[in-house]
């Protein structure tokens, strides 16, 4: 190859104008190519081997264009221009644009990932995970407002939300789609459905792997009413100790608070256990305590928190609430019976008389 031919070849490479661009995401989640602060959208078929791009500022009559050999969001590509004119823009670059678009893209991705595992994740929790990803003062100054980014999160969550069935008006209207009968590991999670014809209707949600935690273990049970879905009186949860932590094992949606229903529910859970729990701690609801004695046949403890609540209700019933609040000696004396919960049973009477 002569020096003249080599010079011509080098000139051809210079005229070819090779650059590297990064494919980010537009506001509508479409691929957008970023090159030195300028942004391009796809012009033509995105699935073609050669992807053509045009500058997004068509309203400014910008005719800059290029092509790449791919358009996957989050990837870098060599950018090709046919001639120098294709690189000329009718406007200046946006120095902060790529960082802001990438922040929005990551915001959407993390929202999607969080929403799959925690549907009600708060926007602020997602924002916290992005702290420190942008440090440039110019970029920080150009960031959208908190309300604008919160709308992005809420729209993203809405777009991936499953197609839930309509609100049922009666127990017979309850239809549980298949995806709501599985946990995040795609294991069966709907343990028992009493059926539409059961007047004492109930649902039990639990995975078999977690139910095993109840076997020969210390178990805790309690009901709550504020979060109970329509048509159900309460959500009764059963927990088990695991490495020093109290984990929820079963969620029971109950229409009544009767010993009969508690007995049915506990029998259903027990049918999946190889052995009974070692103990169960609950509040002082006699209907549940009687059912637990009958079905689980284990040691039953009363919850200290509910015990203190019951003691204070008795103080109120006896008209002692005012002196309890205003007199330290009276308050100390009335609190002494609470300590009896920690005294061995055979010493309760002696300790009470000593107090």
TrEMBL record:
GO molecular function, one term: zinc ion binding
Domain of life: Eukaryota
Keywords linked to the UniProt accession: Metal-binding, Zinc, Zinc-finger
InterPro entries (UniProt xref): Znf_FLYWCH
FLYWCH-type domain ranges (all copies): 24-81
Name of this chain's protein: FLYWCH-type domain-containing protein
């Amino acid at each position: 190859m002569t020096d003249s031919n080599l010079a011509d070849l080098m000139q051809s490479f210079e005229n070819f104008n090779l650059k590297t661009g990064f494919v980010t995401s537009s506001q509508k989640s479409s691929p957008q190519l970023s090159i030195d602060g300028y942004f391009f959208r796809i012009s033509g078929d995105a699935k073609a081997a050669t992807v053509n791009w045009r500058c997004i500022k068509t309203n400014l009559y910008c005719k800059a264009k290029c092509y790449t050999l791919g358009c996957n969001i989050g990837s870098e590509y060599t950018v090709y221009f046919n001639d120098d004119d294709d690189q000329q823009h009718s406007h200046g670059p946006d120095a902060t644009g790529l960082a802001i678009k990438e922040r929005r893209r990551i915001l959407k991705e993390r929202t999607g990932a969080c929403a799959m595992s925690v549907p009600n994740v708060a926007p602020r929790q997602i924002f916290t995970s992005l702290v420190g990803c942008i440090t440039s003062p110019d970029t920080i100054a150009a960031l959208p407002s908190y309300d604008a980014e919160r709308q992005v999160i809420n729209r993203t969550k809405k777009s991936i939300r499953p197609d839930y069935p309509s609100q049922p008006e009666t127990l017979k209207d309850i239809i549980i789609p298949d995806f709501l009968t599985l946990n995040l590991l795609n294991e069966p999670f709907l343990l028992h459905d009493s059926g539409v014809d059961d007047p004492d209707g109930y649902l039990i949600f639990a995975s078999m792997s977690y139910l095993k935690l109840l076997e020969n273990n210390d178990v805790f049970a309690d009901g709550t009413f504020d979060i109970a879905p329509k048509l159900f009186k309460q959500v009764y949860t059963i927990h088990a100790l695991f490495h020093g932590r109290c984990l929820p094992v079963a969620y029971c949606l109950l229409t009544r608070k009767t010993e009969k229903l508690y007995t049915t529910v506990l029998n259903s859970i027990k049918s999946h256990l190889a052995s009974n729990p070692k103990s169960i701690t609950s509040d002082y609801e006699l209907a549940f305590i009687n059912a637990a004695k009958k079905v689980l046949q284990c040691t039953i403890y009363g919850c200290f928190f509910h015990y203190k609540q019951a003691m204070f209700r008795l103080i109120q019933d006896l008209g002692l609430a005012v002196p309890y609040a205003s007199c330290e000696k009276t308050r100390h004396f009335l609190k002494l019976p609470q300590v009896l919960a920690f005294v061995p049973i055979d010493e309760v009477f002696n300790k009470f008389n000593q107090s």
